[in-house]
Amino acid sequence: MKTEEIVSRLEQKHPGEKEYIQAVREVLESIEEIYNRNPQFQSAGIIERLIEPDRVLTFKVPWTDDEGNVNINLGYRVQFNNALGPYKGGLRFHPSVNLSILKFLGFEQIFKNALTTLPLGGAKGGSDFNPKGKSQHEIMRFCQSFMLELWKIIGPETDVPAGDIGVGGREIGFLYGMYKKLTHEHTGVLTGKGLNWGGSLIRPEATGYGVVYFAKEMLASRGETLENKTVAVSGFGNVAWGAVKKATELGAKVVTLSGPDGYIYDPAGVSGKKIDYMLELRATNEDIVEPYAREFDGVEFIPGKHPWEVKVDVALPCATQNELNEQDAKHLVDNGCICVTEGANMPCTPEAIGVFQNHGILFSPGKASNAGGVATSGLEMSQNALKMNWTAREVDDRLHQIMRDIHHACVKYGKRPDGYVDYVKGANVASFLKVANAMLDLGVL
Ligand code: NDP
Ligand code: 2IT
Asked: Domain of 148?
């Protein structure tokens, strides 16, 4: 297998799908060596079968706004690979959504889900619908129309969607309600459900908590802790919120949050009621972080910029893909940052990752460090199957252990002879071996 040849064939076949190609290239570069040492992978065509989704459903989502106008959006579900278990992965509602982004996310999800050690395949879906400024009723009508198509290909043993950017507890409620009406069934077909109708404690916090548990393990490998560390967080959504909560609890000071409008610098730290305020800010659906600076004293709003220019010890990018580039990485390194733990999916560009690794800085890819979200979705599925609810403590303990195990797997497969841990390689090799061996067992499908 030669990464460049496969990637260039893929580029010809899917021109313009740059995020998808970026994600495939990163995985192939990491596994090339181990793949070529195992001829059984080559003879079973594992790579060729893994880099194309099993199927992609595209559909039209018509809905009526509050003024009575008919609107049309595109809906998608990319079912990538189900060697390890039912397809599993979130739904993203954001105007930037297209097939390339969902294929990159679905592809990454295969490996992330394998790392959780739970029986989960990989998928992703969503729509170019923009929730910004929409009323509650408009969001409900959109979700209902979306589910009117999606329900045909999902099920608790087939494909279990969840949230992602623009899809939180409210949207999952509307989607689940429609699924229930269509099928006459209350089943664990979606995760991130409300606590009164099948949800799991800790799922809202899980991704961000997992990111911080992972950062804690990374720092511990160098004899460091989060105590008194200064932290830059980007985004102000679900993942950022959980990360801020846990980082603060562990004694760190989070000094930034960001939105598409810019970032806020809060030298006193985002803590206490300011963390609750993040939820209020998201609930407004206005998509801007700037009001935070007006709400609290001593906070600066820096329009149109990313928070990576601030001097911090730890960076947690939790907003979106390719939000931290080479220049940003250099700023962080120059300012003495020692650890970058991805909360979002693929937030650092390949060039930025190169900078971190060349400087020997701790760096982990989202597929390892943000796997706590989908892992807790897996725990929600287990609770649904058992028809039982675990306590917050039980779920949190399992989540914590899963993050420790993922860290261990990354070290096992990513440790270089000089002792530096290449978490990208570690995560890719550990998860690839699991998926590839399952595919070998199951035959050519
Ligand atoms: P939310 O919608 O709750 O928050 C997303 C955040 O990213 C918001 O602050 C949002 O601001 C910002 N954002 C979104 N798109 C852009 C953009 N194009 N440019 C700049 N900022 C942007 O989503 P989540 O917190 O759930 O997701 C954040 C990241 O974490 C994503 O990469 C997601 O794939 C990943 N993730 C999510 C998991 C989950 O369980 N929810 C699990 C694992 C990973 P705005 O809305 O104002 O644009
Ligand atoms: O990117 C992700 O892992 C998620 N959005 C969560 C997926 C899930 O099924 O919980």
From this structure: 3-187
| End position of a domain, from candidates 369, 404, 437 | 369
Claim: this prediction has a pTM higher than 0.90: yes
Q: Is 347 in the pocket of ligand 2 (CB under 6 A)?
A: no
> Tokens standing for 431?
């998860």
Considering every ligand atom shown, identify the ligand nearest to the alpha carbon of residue 347 and give its number. 1
Query: Strand 300-303 to strand 262-265: parallel, antiparallel, or no bridges (unpaired)?
Result: antiparallel
Residue 290 sits in the same domain as residue 151: no
113 CA → ligand 2 middle, Å: 9
Domain count, the chain: 2
Find out whether the beta carbon of 343 lies less than 6 Å from any atom of ligand 2: no
Pocket test for ligand 1, best of 164, 370, 377 (most atoms within 8 A of CB): 164
CATH number (domain holding residue 100): 3.40.50.10860
Residue among 259, 257, 233, 268 nearest 247 (CA): 233
Treating both helix axes as pointing N-terminal to C-terminal, what angle do 18-36 and 99-115 enclose, rounded to 10 degrees?
A: 40
Flag whether 96 is in a domain. Answer: yes
Query: Is 123 near ligand 1, meaning CB less than 6 Å away?
Result: no
Dump pLDDT digits (tens) for 100-148.
999 999 999 999 999 999 999 999 999 999 998 999 999 999 999 999 9
Domain assignment present for 445:
no
